[in-house]
Specification:
The complex is a heterotrimer of chains A (199), B (115) and C (659). By secondary structure, chain A is mainly α. Chain A is built from 6 helices and no strands. Helix content of chain C is 67%, strand content 1%. The chains are: A mainly alpha (199), B mainly alpha (115), C mainly alpha (659).
Chain lengths: 199, 115, 659
């Protein structure tokens, strides 16, 4: 029997190693997806078709707040993984919950930004610029939504089963995903918002 | 072990916040001309990318073959090819197809090509 | 009342099911065939068996076989479309032919899309699933459940692209659906939506599959098999999968933007609102050119296995082959503009991409020379697989030379959108991918069925195919020079093209005979399987690890994972008289999972619902997919363990059967 347990454990360990690499590769493919959307935005951002340009609609202090919130959530996610690795269930739980709250606030801010643009008649079908803007930022928001859902499932697992080994591995993948979304946001913040408000 | 990780995260977080604020304030204060600003914030973004790759994503710190690093480098290469290529091609098409009215065209040619 | 109907059924009405006789006939035929198969399965009480042994199986050999079955059925569908086009163009000289212009457009769109996405891609993924784990000495792929999901997404896409035969119509915008024609304003029907969602769903399957195989190749090679000791087929698969991984996200994003334009009125590629149709052309080819190499690299890999085995020599220039694959992989991302030289780019851009295109021909040429040098001074056995190789070299070189001609931008202004181009890419894809698949089929068939295919009928099928192939496409090169553009549903009689079009139609008829001979070959081989039985597991005196296994390999492939010391691992082991180890260890295999079939079915319904704007169903299926994934991903993984005693039994039974 111990023979079996050893074989299954070894299998699980190599599987986790594969999953870590596979998930990283998935993130690389997602980067290419975002790159395509960035390229489209870069090509179309001048095509305002009589509508507003970036500098007319961007509220930079608001976006800075969004950026700092997301950055902080990336940090708290890191803390959650450290605490979980230490076996400190309570702390891990708290930091993960903090990440969720920060991520959720970010998402709400993004939705409110979108909402106010649409109410002002500057929805995604207004011009090519706005189409590409909404799609690029919205795709990021969609990823954030998936991440939040994942955090919820994770929180529920921690609550129900404690820090199981397999869940720690899943948490490390979730953390990777969350950091990646932060990296994408740096470029949205820089290319869409900062550069957009320059010209 | 976990202390080193904690230090790594704190370093990453503090420097990312710093880089974000610098980028924000140079743009808001219009510290330089538009062209220089564009390159500055782009540079700051790449810097922050590197910071987060090292301190948050711990790239290149795995055991064995650095497959993560290899795939990352290839991804960056492909992204650069696709983005730069698309911008170059589309700009070139716009220029050649002169996506503007005849009057605009005359002004453009006068200003940019000296004809 | 009308409102309620729209909420429940979206755009779907009774009129959608009414078709003209030809399309309706095809639809009825499809439904009857499907019902007949389902009836037969029900009659034989085989549903449970199908579900347990095939639909939920995570064995890559079975998943690979299912890919190949789907690809073969789609080959017949695509071929039927080809016959209709050839017939139309042979008849429509100064007349209207038997197809309406609209139907003709649907036919060529379906032909292109199906042949690329569901035949060529299906063949590629099928062969990879069957062969890669065996060649690297692995028991499975890295992510068995994802592998099953990939297949079922592929199958869902296949059903969606065939659904227009029953309800609605297919896209008339060509296989790449250039806007603004594919935008809502000019294609208001469901056709383009069918096209988008079929490709989108199958494409996500391909993307997942590529991650799977890259990790498999990186992480699961047998001990001692360093990268430079991998069989060259595995190298070519690695190149191909890396391309899928980086090219398919571009397709996903591009199709996503096209559908956002159609669904939410956004302006990416529209003629109004500041959109730019050229951006679509740019992006779709940034995916589309790598796609060409995604298809052809594995075919190169197959030939690199076939030629050394039947020349009784090791592959000439292994290292240069590896470099050629690596360079092709990278360069295939730098040539995409050659698909639209004529669309307004300046001399600088056109020159750059023209030169890059000429450069990428060099590593391909290196490969051709390597194969020929492998044959040189070898003891060449002219088996059917080898004849397919020879047919490939001839047609691929001819087509390749035509490709280099078109890489010269000024010349391309003459060739662009002409039948010359059509002839070129058919020579490449049929001559490369399809001939490669046939060579692989003849070569690997005994591994999975335990007997060889009939050589005589096999050779005849090659000759008929090649003859038909030359007759079908040589006239198109000539017609291209004469100014015939692609996608003509009729032309003026005074142009004098009809003769050549008739020759081309005859050629397709001969290809059909070739396919008939292939079916005959399989039939006769099954009939006379006693005479060509192979009990050794190594009928061709092979060089790579798959030949070290009995036919067919056990579920776990290798009872003991082999240790590799050199290239051509099995060849080396054979010549050192190495005996396979019997130090069995318990083997962990994943338990069957219905996740793939469930996600695939939900994706199918999701695709159909979004095509017909049935929004409630879109939401229901989307939530279903998310729930299925959450439940399956949070559950602990289920394994079956095969104990050492069971392995001993299985292996002993196999040896008994072999002796």
């Amino acid at each position: 029997m111990s023979d079996l347990i050893r074989v299954v454990d070894a299998e699980q360990a190599t599987r986790n190693e594969r999953k870590a690499l596979g998930f990283w590769i998935y993130i690389m493919t997602d980067c290419v997806l975002f790159a395509t959307l960035f390229a489209t935005y870069a090509v179309l951002h001048g095509n305002v078709f009589g509508g507003p340009a970036g500098k007319d609609i961007f509220n930079l202090p608001f976006v800075l707040a969004e950026t700092l919130i997301l950055l902080t959530s990336s940090f708290t996610m890191g803390l959650a993984t450290i605490m979980a690795a230490k076996g400190n269930r309570h702390q891990a739980y708290t930091w993960l919950a903090a990440t969720f709250i920060l991520g959720f606030s970010f998402l709400m801010m993004e939705i409110s930004e979108f909402g106010s643009l649409i109410i002002d008649g500057n929805g995604p079908s207004r011009s090519a610029f706005l189409s590409s803007f909404f799609t690029l930022v919205g795709t990021h928001g969609l990823h954030i939504t998936v991440g939040l859902l994942w955090i919820l499932v994770m929180l529920w697992r921690f609550y129900k089963h404690g820090l199981k080994k397999q869940d720690l591995h899943r948490l490390s993948l979730l953390a990777l995903f969350w950091h990646f979304l932060d990296v994408i946001w740096i470029f949205i913040f820089t290319i869409v918002y900062l550069m957009g408000s320059l010209s | 072990m976990s202390n080193r990780k904690l230090i790594s995260y704190v370093t990453g977080f503090v420097s990312s916040v710093g880089l974000t604020l610098v980028a924000y304030y140079v743009v808001v204060d219009r510290a330089f001309g538009v062209g220089a600003l564009t390159y500055t914030v782009a540079g700051l973004a790449v810097l922050q990318l590197i910071v987060q790759l090292i301190f948050f994503l711990h790239i290149g710190q795995e055991k064995g073959t650095h497959w993560k690093l290899v795939t990352f480098i290839f991804a960056v290469l492909v992204i650069l090819i696709v983005v730069v290529g698309s911008l170059w091609i589309m700009h070139n098409l716009d220029y050649n197809m002169m996506n503007m009215s005849p009057d605009q065209q005359k002004i453009y040619m006068h200003n940019n090509e000296g004809i | 009342m009308n409102n309620l109907r729209e909420i429940i059924f979206g755009r779907l009405t009774w009129q959608a099911f009414q078709h003209d006789p030809i399309m309706g006939g095809a639809g009825v035929f499809m439904v009857v065939a499907l019902l007949a198969i389902m009836g037969y399965v029900t009659y034989k009480h085989k549903w449970g068996w199908l579900w347990r042994n095939w639909f939920t199986s995570l064995d890559p050999k079975k998943i690979g076989a299912m890919y190949l079955i789907v690809a073969f059925i789609m080959l017949l569908r695509g071929l039927a479309d080809a016959l209709m086009m050839r017939g139309q163009q042979a008849l429509a000289s100064g007349a209207n032919g038997y197809l309406s212009a609209d139907h003709f457009q649907q036919v060529f769109t379906a032909h292109g899309s199906i042949m690329i996405f569901f035949v060529a891609m299906g063949i590629v993924f099928g062969v990879i699933n069957l062969i890669v784990p065996l060649q690297i000495g692995a028991r499975d792929v890295a992510f068995p459940k994802l592998n099953s999901i990939s297949f079922w997404l592929f199958a869902a896409g296949m059903i969606i692209i065939n659904a227009p035969l029953i309800a609605g119509e297919f896209s008339t915008a060509g296989w790449l659906a250039y806007p603004p024609l594919s935008e809502l304003q000019y294609s208001p029907g469901v056709g383009v939506d069918y096209w988008i969602w079929s490709l989108q769903i199958a494409g996500i399957g391909s993307l997942i599959s590529s991650i799977n195989f890259v990790v498999t190749i990186f992480k699961m090679r047998a001990p001692g098999m360093t990268l430079m000791k991998m069989p060259i087929f595995v190298w070519s698969v690695l190149g191909s999968m890396v391309l899928v991984m980086f090219a398919f996200p571009i397709l996903t994003a591009t199709l996503g933007m096209l559908s956002l334009g159609r669904l939410l009125g956004m302006h990416f590629f529209t003629a109004g609102g500041g959109g730019d149709a050229m951006m679509y052309v740019n992006l779709i080819w940034a995916w589309g050119h790598p796609e060409v190499y995604i298809l052809v690299l594995p075919a190169f890999g197959i030939f690199s296995e076939v030629v050394p085995v039947f020349s009784k020599k090791k592959l000439f220039g292994y290292t240069s082959m590896v470099w050629a694959i690596a360079i092709i992989t990278l360069l295939s991302f730098t040539v995409w503009l050659h698909h639209f030289f004529t669309m307004g780019a300046g001399a600088d851009v056109n020159t750059f991409f023209g030169i890059m295109t000429m450069i990428i021909a060099i590593p391909t040429g290196v490969k051709v020379f390597n194969w020929i040098f492998t044959m040189w001074r070898g003891r060449v056995q002219f088996t059917t697989a080898m004849w397919w190789f020879i047919a490939f070299v001839v047609s691929f070189t001819l087509g390749g030379v035509a490709g280099v001609m078109m890489s010269v931008p000024p010349a391309d202004f003459q060739f662009h959108n002409s039948l010359f181009l059509v002839a070129h890419f058919h020579t490449m894809i049929i001559g490369g991918v399809v001939f490669g698949a046939f060579a692989g089929f003849n070569y690997w068939f005994p591994k999975f069925f335990g007997f060889k295919l009939n050589e005589r009928i096999g050779r005849w099928s090659v000759f008929m195919w090649v003859l038909g192939f030359l007759l079908a496409f040589t006239p198109l090169y000539i017609l291209g020079f004469m100014g015939a553009t692609r996608r003509l549903d009729h032309y003026d009689a005074s142009l004098g093209w009809q003769g050549l079009f008739i020759v081309a139609a005859v050629g397709v008829g001969l290809i059909l005979v070739g396919i008939g001979l292939q079916l005959l070959q399989v039939g006769v081989s099954i009939w006379q399987r006693k005479q060509s039985l192979d009990t050794s597991g190594d009928p061709w005196d092979g060089r790579t690890l798959e030949w070290s296994l009995p036919n067919p390999p056990a579920e776990y492939n290798f009872a003991v994972i082999p240790t590799v010391t050199e290239r051509d691992a099995f060849w080396v082991a054979k010549h050192n008289n190495a005996q396979p180890s019997t130090d069995y260890e318990p083997i962990v295999v994943p338990e069957n999972s219905g996740l793939g079939a469930v996600v695939g079915s939900l994706a199918l319904v999701f695709g159909l619902a979004i095509v017909w704007h049935i929004w409630w169903l879109v939401i229901v299926t989307l939530v279903g997919v998310i729930l299925a994934l959450i439940i399956s991903l949070t559950r602990d993984e289920m394994y079956t363990v095969i104990t050492t005693d069971e392995i001993k039994q299985i292996e002993a039974a196999r040896e008994g059967a072999a002796a």
